[in-house]
Amino acid sequence: MNKIPFLDLQAQYHQLRGEILPALDQVSESCGWAQGPATKAFESDFAAYCGVKHCVTLNSGTSALHLAMRCLDIGPGDEVITVPMTFIATAWGISYVGARPVFVDICPHRRTLDPSKLKAAITPRTKAIIPVHLYGMPADMDPILEIAAQHGIPVIEDAAQAHGARYHDKRVGQFGRIACFSFYPGKNLGAYGEGGALLTNDDDIAARARALRDHAQTERYHHAEIGYNYRMDGFQGAVLGIKLKYLDAWNAARRAHAARYNQRLTGLPLQIPTVPADSEPVWHLYVVEVPKRDEVRQKLTDAGIGTGLHYPLPLHLQGAYAFLGHRRGDFPVTEKLADTCLSLPMYAELTDAQIDVVCDTLRRAIS
User: Fold this and answer.
1) Which residues is 26 bridged to in the sheet?
2) Phi-psi group of 325: left, alpha or beta (phi > 0 → left; psi -120 to 50 → alpha; rest → beta)
3) In degrees, to the nearest 5, what angle opens at C-alpha 48 toward C-alphas 46 and 51?
4) What is the number of domains present in the chain?
5) pLDDT(2) > 90
6) Which of 244, 272, 288 is the last residue of a domain?
């Protein structure tokens, strides 16, 4: 049986090995292991790619979200609005500074923050709004930004799954006051370890984030506030700099794969993703909604097809956030997606033949 993995990072590495290994050797020769020239070059390239002034590289996307809170002086007693359907790191940044996450349900088509439910969640304590570009699909930013502007609230984009995605022909990362990216290995633009970045057009925020990532040093051994060791290492900067050259081609391949999935799965008793006319998603994940999900998933596993669940337990039902007092039924669109979501294999190196096998097997599993 020829297995089809959920993600095949080896296939990508084999294509890039001839570029990657010399770049890592160059970092070693230069001894620029902590931040260093490779990360500085990547910062410049990624900022230009996303259409913003500043990219501050970090050791993870979680750290980027944390520093976004710090740079906006959010702390105890404050509230930050986000969605319950996301990886939990979105909420960690809020909790790390002692603020309170306030959840807003998602819309069923984009699977991102529902702007029609946003106003009701805003209070005098709301200090930021974090829409999540989930699965590589841009959130509906225009109404979100309009509501935020009406209330004088900054927007932070969680773009951890959306490298290169476009909304109204503009890449995500340039809509909010701050944008946060992850370069975890499985991302569309993934490091060979942990990595993240904070993007902004605000000079003061960029300067503060650069200081905070390096123990809050504005000059050597002078620390005006509490800081962190959130630096990106040079190896990751080198890897990301090489991979960035291929990102658009990889994203185009993912879009072609998603289109083939949609074509092959139309008419089955499941919900396939939709693509709004205003957006160009990058398909970090291809997620269908399937009744009797766990039973169907097991049949795919038995047939050698890897799948994922993103995410089976939404944030408002996690034990870590039980203190918020939410119950099942509070966010019905999120809960339906959590109960039925099934992520199918998705990576640039996937072949049409593999997609056809996945679709045929899924068809049999459902019937």
Assistant:
1) none
2) left
3) 110
4) 2
5) no
6) 244
